[in-house]
């Protein structure tokens, strides 16, 4: 275990605000559930940790009804805000969402927690609260696990994935669908890279290289879509596709 650093990397932080960020690209079928789940988790965190929260959904090059479905799912909740860009890169979409949320919150960076997930994923109610509990004990980033959602078809390929996956404390997985980071630590890395995939992996590695404290936990797994046709090159869907090709 590293000794506590004097520059704030391991100091206990008073967190006053949370930003949940969701990038979306043609996810009309699932984004409504993602938005509702995020807002529910935010409400619980407001009660358990006394924070204020904002949800930022970034539609990137969408040509379906994702925006309409997401706005309807928010049901007028003032915490939900929506942006549209045409980058075609999930890293850019996440970065735009984070920047917007930080500007809207106007809080000192060490006091803001950034909870990241995906438009095809539904976070559990305790998701934000779980991350905040880690954060208030000096953790700069929380790397969570995933599990198949109720829409996923469990076939030979997804069952093979399940035999390889290790949803345990101290796991080695990194998922943009379940990744939390303190805002000052995020900014110190330069933020999400302007790439089409692996922006989550790059961020986690940069945080570790800079000496920030990371925790990999099995708590509060996020239900995500298990599909072989994905939006991001080299993403989770491509991993499933690789299992199918090699089977």
Automatic annotation (TrEMBL):
Catalyzes the glycosylation of 4,4'-diaponeurosporenoate, i.e. the esterification of glucose at the C1'' position with the carboxyl group of 4,4'-diaponeurosporenic acid, to form glycosyl-4,4'-diaponeurosporenoate. This is a step in the biosynthesis of staphyloxanthin, an orange pigment present in most staphylococci strains. This is 4,4'-diaponeurosporenoate glycosyltransferase. GO terms for molecular function: glycosyltransferase activity. It comes from the Bacteria. SUPFAM superfamilies: Nucleotide-diphospho-sugar transferases. InterPro entries: Glyco_trans_2-like, Nucleotide-diphossugar_trans. Keywords: Cell membrane, Glycosyltransferase, Membrane, Transferase. Pfam families: Glycos_transf_2 (PF00535). Belongs to the glycosyltransferase 2 family. CrtQ subfamily. Residues 20-159 form the Glycosyltransferase 2-like domain. Coiled coil: none annotated. It is found in: Cell membrane. GO terms for cellular component: plasma membrane. Pathway: Carotenoid biosynthesis; staphyloxanthin biosynthesis; staphyloxanthin from farnesyl diphosphate: step 4/5. It comes from Gulosibacter chungangensis. Its main location: membrane.
């Amino acid at each position: 275990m590293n000794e506590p650093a004097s520059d704030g990397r391991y100091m206990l932080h008073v967190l006053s605000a949370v930003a949940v960020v969701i990038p979306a690209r043609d996810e009309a079928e699932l984004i409504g559930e993602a938005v509702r789940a995020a807002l529910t988790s935010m409400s619980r965190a407001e009660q358990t940790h006394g924070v204020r929260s904002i949800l930022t959904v970034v539609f990137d090059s969408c040509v379906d009804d994702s925006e309409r479905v997401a706005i309807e799912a928010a049901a007028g909740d003032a915490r939900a805000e929506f942006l549209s860009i045409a980058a075609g890169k999930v890293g850019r979409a996440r970065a735009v969402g984070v920047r917007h949320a930080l500007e809207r919150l106007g809080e000192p960076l060490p006091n803001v927690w950034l909870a990241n997930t995906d438009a095809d994923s539904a976070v559990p109610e305790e998701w934000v609260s779980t991350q905040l509990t880690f954060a208030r004990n000096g953790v700069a980033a929380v790397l969570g696990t995933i599990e198949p959602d109720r829409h996923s078809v469990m076939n030979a390929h997804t069952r093979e994935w399940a035999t390889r996956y290790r949803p345990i404390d101290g796991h080695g997985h990194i998922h943009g669908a379940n990744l939390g980071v303190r805002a000052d630590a995020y900014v110190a890395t330069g933020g999400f890279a302007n790439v089409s995939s692996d922006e989550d992996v790059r961020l986690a590695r940069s945080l570790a290289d800079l000496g920030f404290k990371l925790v990999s936990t099995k708590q509060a797994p996020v239900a995500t879509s298990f599909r072989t046709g994905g939006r991001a090159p080299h993403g989770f869907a491509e991993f499933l596709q690789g299992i199918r090709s090699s089977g």
